[in-house]
Specification:
With about 450 residues, this protein is an alpha+beta fold. The protein has helices at about 5, 10-15, 30-35, 40-45, 70-75, 85-95, 105-115, 125-140, 150-165, 170-195, 205-230, 240-245, 255-285, 290-305, 315-330, 360-365, 385, 410-425, and strands at about 50-55, 60-65, 80, 145-150, 335-340, 345, 350, 355-360, 425-430, 435-440, 445-450, 450-455. Helix content is about 50%, strand content about 10%. Strand 10 and strand 11 form a beta hairpin. The protein binds protoporphyrin IX containing FE.
């Protein structure tokens, strides 16, 4: 008996009400223009219209979920899978056979293949690389020199992901190419997601050409990485070996396309999210010097005069709270989508089969109903005695359920280590022309953060 065949055909589902329609839609365009013009403000204001609200996106109806409890219910329910406009645009560009976009049995098999590389007891193996790259990052700053935080943050993110998971000899040139390709691809992809005007993106415009070139380079780089590993004849115990040796349900090796798509599906979310979060952490250390001082003091109290190391991370509780609070206010992943596989119920409302549902971790994590002084940067709200009052699912930057980010332990260890290493050595200030305004793309990041460092 399949799970589907026992799904109760609840007659009440048909009697459930239809969620209210969000205000401010335009004829024909619906709410799409608001998502283009002010996506964060628009998504945050949806909570004023209800727990579940309908949006009109051109001819389509999209459902938005606005409470922590319902985002948890959505992520944990078997009635939804990965789908919707975000994933369709990702699939078209990044590949259809990667873990981030697969569903059902394929997704379960792929998660089994990649999971060992991210298990909590595997992460310490990555400690030396994380330490080395954090230290190198801190050493690239010079007293008084201006640093472009976008490219530097990308470089750390790409190098750590590639060196830990693919054990590649990622020299600067390749990391640089990968970072450049990813930056351009992610920027263009967001536009293609919110304005899905297919033929428009075939026009011979410079930005479209740059996007096409970057996408081609990204795929070429991934092929290079795979070919290089095969040619080396080596099989280190890493994620790439796991992918190259993976078998499908019939016991046959998985196809070349799946291997390629899997590498893309792990490198792309891995670098963009970490890079964006590092940029926000740099912004936080600059804007809140009192917390930068506390992070530096904590690192000193734990590590003394030696540089802070991977093994120190779990003792860096204030640093960890700074990272969490930065991720609360500026979550890299600010919008998530699902598609209903059957007619179902959510929050007392009827959700038709095939409906697209969105929710915004950004809106949920800034909800004044969940957080006192919700816009204040207050890392101490994560102290155990205070965090117990925060509603369940009000802070799940890595999501929950079967699509939960496999890299939560990996990411938190790296982010805390980078933050402590930088703050122990430097104080930061923004230079003229720098902009820390929020730039909305596939992830959120500062528009153009340029900082000068002074030794501590
Ligand atoms: C999935 C957040 C870093 C690989 C996800 C999801 C979230 C997320 C929210 C779930 C998407 C959904 O529910 O639809 C983050 C954040 C990160 C981070 C906030 C860092 C600040 C990474 C890194 C890697 C990675 C470093 C790999 C090196 C993945 C993959 C998935 C995923 C492969 C797809 C999982 C699946 O669909 O089964 N991430 N992520 N992430 N993340 Fe991360």
């Amino acid at each position: 008996m399949t799970v589907d065949s026992v799904r109760p055909e609840v007659p009440e589902v048909r009697e459930l009400s239809v969620p209210p329609l969000a205000g401010g839609g335009l004829p024909v365009l619906g709410h799409g223009w608001k998502l283009v013009r002010d996506p964060l403000g628009f998504l945050a204001r949806l909570r004023d219209h209800g727990d579940v609200v309908r949006l009109r996106m051109g001819p389509k109806t999209v459902y938005a979920v606005t409470t922590p409890a319902l985002t948890g219910a959505l992520a944990l329910s078997p009635d939804y899978e990965i789908g919707g406009p975000l994933w369709e645009s990702l699939e078209g560009l990044l590949g259809r056979q990667g873990v981030a976009t697969a569903n059902g049995a394929l997704h379960r098999r792929q998660r089994r293949t990649i999971q060992p590389a991210f298990r909590a007891d595997t992460i310490p193996e990555y400690g030396p690389v994380m330490e080395e790259e954090s230290k190198a990052f801190a050493e690239r700053w010079e007293d008084g020199a201006t640093v472009d935080c976008t490219s530097e943050s990308f470089r750390v993110a790409v190098r750590v992901a590639a060196r830990c998971l693919l054990r590649g000899r990622f020299m600067d040139e390749r990391a640089e190419r990968l970072s450049l390709a990813l930056t351009t691809v992610f920027r263009g992809m967001y536009r293609r997601m919110v304005v899905p005007a297919g033929p428009l993106y075939r026009l011979p415009l410079p930005s479209i050409r740059a996007f096409d070139r970057a996408l081609a380079d990204l795929h070429a780089l991934v092929d290079e990485i795979i070919d290089e590993r095969r040619a080396s004849g080596q099989k280190p115990n890493d994620l790439l070996t796991a992918l190259l040796e993976a078998k499908n349900d019939d016991g046959d090796p998985i196809g070349e396309q799946e291997i390629h798509d899997q590498v893309v599906a792990i490198l792309t979310p891995g670098s963009e999210t970490i890079a964006s979060t590092i940029m926000w952490l740099l912004q936080v250390l600059t804007e809140h010097p009192e917390h930068a001082d506390k992070v530096a003091a904590e690192a000193r109290s734990v590590a003394g005069d030696r540089p802070v190391g991977f093994d120190d991370v779990r003792k860096l509780s204030h640093t960890n709270n700074v990272v969490v609070e930065a991720m609360r206010l500026r979550p890299a992943v600010w919008i998530l989508t699902r598609r209903a596989v059957a007619e179902t119920e959510l929050g007392g409302y009827r959700i038709p089969a095939g409906a697209d549902i969105v929710y915004s971790p950004y809106a949920i994590q800034r909800d004044p109903r969940s957080y006192r002084e919700h816009l204040d940067f207050d890392p101490d709200r994560w102290l155990p005695e205070r965090s117990k009052d925060i509603p369940k699912y009000a802070m799940r930057p890595f999501s929950v359920g079967n699509r939960k980010c496999p890299s939560d332990h990996f990411s938190m260890a790296l982010l805390s280590l980078v933050t402590a290493t930088l703050a122990s050595r430097w104080r930061f200030e923004q230079v003229p022309g720098s902009s820390d305004a929020t730039r909305v793309g596939i992830t959120l990041r500062p528009h153009e953060l340029r900082l000068r460092a002074r030794p501590r």
